[in-house]
């Protein structure tokens, strides 16, 4: 055993002190790191409140299984699955990378089954209603219109677009540099309508009191954050009189529009920064029935007989 750990070092203390550094070094996103550490913190809290060990050298499979079962009862299967993945990575790191535990209690544990429900796409009518709430030349209207246009037109992950710096945008070439999962760099190429909306925001941004900031997206208080985007969308949806949505629906809607308009899978995988066909298929399921129906009507099999 390593000398780093002692009998009183808890799972969460170890994770937040040492594992966090290794996750950053591996290029994991802040969102992924936060989710992984949340899993460690919640298991630690569950064990403490139920008289179970918090030393990772003593934690067993039955302790983890009890935590996951409790989590499913209180929250959802998807939350349970998210925490499972975080703990799976943590115990693998403890055993395989660090040698801090003699055996991995999760080695033979199977991930919980989660019903794969397609993320609903946003209809054209709802999108028009959403954009209509951004008419006007206030800073917030120009920013929100540009942000929503970028999400719909180029399909980035919300954390990717919200991490953008001012220098990442080249208005002359219309190219935007993003850093995706695993610190992989790729480029977004907005179409003229989306780029025009972004340019209007950039012009308004020059008059913002925080214009010297390196962050691309600004709010009245400072950097415009992921949570700020979620709150903005709620307000815009309420103003438009449509059901509330979450930012990730833009990415699914973008993928649906690309496929329905004939983009091939290789190009879509490249633009979406997916490394597996499984992820491509997951995004493609959001409106597969609608695309199949449109294809059938377009091809009209039998109508020429």
Can I get a quick summary?
56% of the residues lie in helices and 4% in strands. With 305 residues, the chain is mostly helical.
Can you walk through the features of this model?
- This protein is mostly helical and 305 residues long.
- The protein folds into 2 domains: 11-97, DNA polymerase, domain 1, CATH 1.10.150; 124-297, hpI Integrase, Chain A (Orthogonal Bundle), CATH 1.10.443.
- The protein is built from 13 helices and 3 strands; from the N terminus they run αααααααβββαααααα.
- The chain has helices at 11-25, 30-49, 61-74, 77-97, 124-132, 139-154, 158-162, 192-205, 226-240, 248-260, 265-272, 277-284, 288-299, and strands at 169-170, 175-179, 185-188.
- A 3-stranded antiparallel β-sheet has the order 1-2-3, with no helix packed on it.
- A hairpin with a 5-residue loop joins strand 2 (175-179) and strand 3 (185-188).
- Helix 2 (30-49) packs across helix 4 (77-97), helix 3 packs antiparallel against helix 4 and helix 5 packs across helix 9.
- The N and C termini lie far apart (77 Å).
- Residues 1-7 have low confidence and may be disordered.
Proportion of residues in helical segments: 55-70%
> Approximately what portion of the residues adopt beta-strand conformation?
under 5%
What summary fits the major beta sheet?
3 strands, antiparallel
What is the top-level CATH class of the largest domain?
Mainly Alpha
Low-pLDDT stretches are 1-7
- What strand order characterises the main sheet? 1-2-3
Q: What is the C-alpha radius of gyration, as a whole number of Å?
A: 23 Å
CATH architecture of the largest domain: Orthogonal Bundle
Helical run tally: 13
